[in-house]
Design a protein that fits this description.
The chain has 163 residues and is mainly alpha-helical. It has five helices and two strands. The chain is elongated, with a radius of gyration of 26 Å. It has a two-stranded parallel ribbon. α1 packs antiparallel against α2. α5 links the parallel β1 and β2.
């Protein structure tokens, strides 16, 4: 009987401390919901959950700090001479990115080497393939590197001209 009271006390203590922690911190909402469900169902595991949350937050803070340092050093990277005729542009808007890519494809005279993780058969993907096919007809060497897993929706018929 005494063990039952101790377990119940431990259960409610972990439950209330877990709820207090979740509701008082600025954590990711999706993580809060999953963690809240875990705390409600398995409050005995809340100390382990706290450790995971703590290490996740520490890792996230390190990544944010590194990203800030990288963004501060980005203008400096462009000034260093790693190799000739290269530059770095930071795009934060997909529309502007693809306008620039299409302009560069249009200006290409000898070769185009392009690398993407995902290429889809949406409006932009079809337009890019069309522009690359036009460059093939102008005898411009076109090499495309993509991840087949990231582009698994892409049908093989779109690559016929690139073989």
């Amino acid at each position: 009987m005494e063990t039952t009271y101790i377990l119940l006390a431990f259960y409610f203590l972990n439950l209330f401390l877990g709820l207090k922690y979740l509701l008082s911190n600025n954590l990711n909402l999706a993580n809060n919901i999953y963690t809240l469900i875990l705390v409600l169902i398995f409050p005995f595991f809340t100390p382990i959950i706290y450790l995971f949350i703590f290490f996740d937050e520490q890792y996230r803070r390190r990544l944010v700090k590194k990203r800030t340092i990288d963004l501060l050093n980005l203008p400096d990277v462009n000034e260093r001479l790693f190799s000739e005729h290269n530059d770095i542009q930071l795009f934060t808007n997909g529309k502007i990115l693809f306008e620039d890519i299409f302009q560069e494809i249009k200006l290409a005279k000898n070769f185009i080497h392009i690398s993407f993780f995902t290429i889809n058969t949406d409006k932009i993907g079809k337009l890019m393939i069309k522009k690359l096919e036009e460059k093939l007809m102008e005898n411009v060497e076109v090499k495309i590197m993509y991840d087949p897993l990231g582009s698994f929706i892409m049908k093989k018929k779109y690559w016929q001209h690139f073989k």
